[in-house]
Batch of 4 targets.
Target 1
Amino acid sequence: MSPSKVSTLDFETFYNVVDGKQRGSKEIHHGVNPATGKELWDVPIASEKDLNDAVAAGKKAFPAWRDTPVQKRKELLMKFADLFTQHADEFTNLLCHESGKPKKFAATEIGGVSGFIQYHCSLEIPEEKFEDDEKTVYTEYTPLGVCGGIIPWNFPLILSVGKIAPALLTGNTIVVKPSPFTPYTGLKLVELAQEIFPPGVVQAVGGNNELGALLTTHPDIAKISFTGSIATGKKVMEASAKTLKRVTLELGGNDASIILPDVDIKKVAPEVVMGAFQNSGQVCVATKRIYIHESIYKEFLQEMVNFTKTIKVGSPEDGDNLLGPIQNSMQYEKVKGFFADSKAKGYKFAAGEPDVSTSKGFFVQPTIIDNPPNDSRIIAEEPFGPIVPTQPWSDEEEVIARANNTNTGLGACVWGKDVEHASKIARKLEAGSVFVNSWEKPTPQAIFGGHKESGIGGEWGKTGLLAFMNAHVIHVYKS
């Protein structure tokens, strides 16, 4: 089908995409609209045969795609970005239904897709040359082969394209597995890609955890790029070890924000709240622990509470909400557990209600817990929902140690008027991405990955391209 006919794309019928063709299944499941609790459209569950066929098609397509000049690959990626933009409204609507995101935040994610592709197309594949009297050594980078991308439910589109763009740019083929909680936008993205790319270059198979396990053990998949929980990431690494697959794991975080005493309280407090509650706290790099200097603790906390009380929570259909629901019932129950624990232990709720609403959708009012102990669940674990603890601090080295006292290290923030001083603290924080005077906003212009149990390796940015490539060193000796 030519791009001119693409306006007929059906946004209510969904397929797996194998070797350039739409493929249904006898086995189906449904996503759930988290704002209403109602089932959405049928989605086919891919079988082991579907996966095997997809990997075989990716393997078959790989040599020609690898040998396609990089400039031509970029041209096709840019065409894909343009084509996607033509369907921005339909994708925004679909994302609202499957994720519950308020419309303006869904639109931001949709806008990020073409931005992600365009930025990657500005990059050159790195190479180096070393020469001495005896030899010339060329360090070049070659694609891996068929890659597998396992996508989470919190940002189903931007995290799909964050794997597809660099994989395709560097000459790999890719099989994407969307989350069963949010399968719709990812499947439709890959269906749309068939208008541009040769069959087998980018494919999608939807399904459950069993399908993910089959991806990680498949002998013809060269690399797994996984975004998700630490527990599942460990299973992915263990399974991938059997064939020594390359793995990139971007896992959970328990991000600290350190508030220095010189901040503009009225300006910064609402920003810190946004960092904690954006996407209803369902962000791997959301602010999860807030450390406020004792000299401004009460005033800063009060400003956070004031702003939190103005936040509107509701369905995407309800107008200008800042927050939507928790995306799925499993996560909703987990978040409720943090409320129940904090209430049972008698912690002080500075904002929000200790009892979670019982509406049809999975809604939670944003909540701040005032100064719980260091060993509390809300400090030690990642809730992945709109509930955040605050604590005072007085000694800088001690609060840096407190911030680093976690097995995770994905992101962190430091807020202060003296930017040089704040940046010095930032360099002492054990996290992959540290933000000074901003809440956590990962960008395709820089590699994104975690320290400690927040992951292995990283992707995005120029450095991130190397995650999809093998070093290939040619030593040429002079005769």
Note: Residues 1-7 have pLDDT under 50 and may be disordered.
Target 2
Amino acid sequence: MLEKKFKKIANPALKEFVENFDILNALADYNRMKIVILLFDNLKTGLTVTSITNQMTITQPAVSHHLKILRDAGVVAFRKEGLQSYYYLTLEEPLESIEEKAKTLRAELENKE
């Protein structure tokens, strides 16, 4: 993946940014962004894969695939209620991570001026 391609980066700030690329990658897809928006509109209850699929123009397996990418990046999580799994946003930690990376890179750029 991208981390392997840039394994020899010498700058610590840039290296840290690249190592945490999963969050940005997860949010860089139209369908995943649409899922995030749907989940944001349902913060209190969450949504099942079926209810997400019904609001999208992609198949249920494709929705499940996108949810897995978002889950692996820490953007969403799910809870089981009986036979149903309800997906919900867990954006706080990923957003804090992105903010921290941006601050580090900004400081690095200011030091170079």
Note: Helices lie at 2-5, 12-19, 21-27, 30-40, 49-54, 60-72, 92-112.
Target 3
Amino acid sequence: MTQIQNNQMVTELDIAGMSCGHCVSAVEKALRSVPGVDVVTVSLEEGKATVQGNAEQAAMLAAVAEEGYVATPRG
């Protein structure tokens, strides 16, 4: 799901395959590497990532996939 808050897009992604803190770190790092991403929050318990910024959704999904996880738009 993508919303606009404070003139920034907020995208929620379901992340499959995370099982530990290292997984969370890997997904955060991958998403932060995408141009246009400003803030990333990843929740292992909820299996989701919340991304603020004006990044391309396809680029975010690809970055997570490169780390070996599956990201899908939430909502």
Note: The first strand starts at residue 2 and ends at 5.
Target 4
Amino acid sequence: MSMRFFNQGYRTWAFSVILLFLLFWTVLQLKFVRFEESNSALEATISRLRGANTQLLEERLSHRNKKSYVDDAIIIYNRVPKTASTSFVNVAYDLCRRNGFNVLHLNVSGNLHVMPLPDQARFVYNVTHWDAKKPGLYHGHVAFIDFDKFGSSQKPIYINLLRKPLDRLISYYYFLRFGDNYRPHLIRRKHGDKMTFDECVKLKQADCDPNNMWLQIPFLCGHMPECWQPGNPWALEEAKHNLATRYLLVGVTEQLAEFIAVLEATLPTFFRGASQHFKSSKKSHLRKTNHKLEPNNHTVAEIMKSKIWQMEMELYEYAVDKFDYVKKKMGRTEDGLLVDRGVQFMFEKISPKQK
């Protein structure tokens, strides 16, 4: 009897143990399955996060690269004297805070138009590494500087204005004697000299020597000694080559408003609102010579005999032709003002297709 009871109790105990084991194993299996599912979900989440993070990083890098063209842009306006450069530069000064760029004046010691080679190297390094002043517009009376010669990876955007060579010379001649409306009380170097330009040419004085017109060519030619040799044919060709290949835009004084309009359409980061500002402000009348007499026909004929005038005029007309071509590609308002025609291109047949 007791043995039968013992066997029955043992079987009950064994069954209970087996049942508990099976329950424990089932629970463990369920937890393992849930763990696997959670792990898979976690891996999928991590994968999505990595993908999203990679996409975000790529977008940020892409955005940074898109902004870098604007944020790092450098404009160099190596302004030729007496070409309405002050009027133009003051528009930039008025717009710089609103449009978020910097304007810096390059003052070369002794009012020289060329810099020693070490100074050129320092200038190139400074403007390309001075990140706090980017984007920036640098202006000054200095000849073209070739950044490629110094191994610079960043290339500046060169712009300039040219003027009819005789008009520029006459303006400078009377400016030295009578000053201008920009600083009317400043006594100029030739103050008190009443000799007219006609009289100066007739007497063959130094101030009206045609060689004094040799300035726009060397400014666009650069720092090579040949650039500053009056009448050098190579200098003229180099100036024309630089105008065509190294300058974004070279306008002419007689079309200053159009020059500003083209820059506004092309470089809106710098010149957004420039045309309207120039039109409505008094900037177009800055640096106007106080007293100036137009030359007589005999004086003009004498000047036109000069090889220097002929060469400088060739560069000026070359600039006019190039500027006219640029204007033809622009749109115009009903008032005849130059404006951006909008996007005239598109991308198509893009491969591979995005998923």
Note: DSSP finds twelve helices and seven strands in the chain.
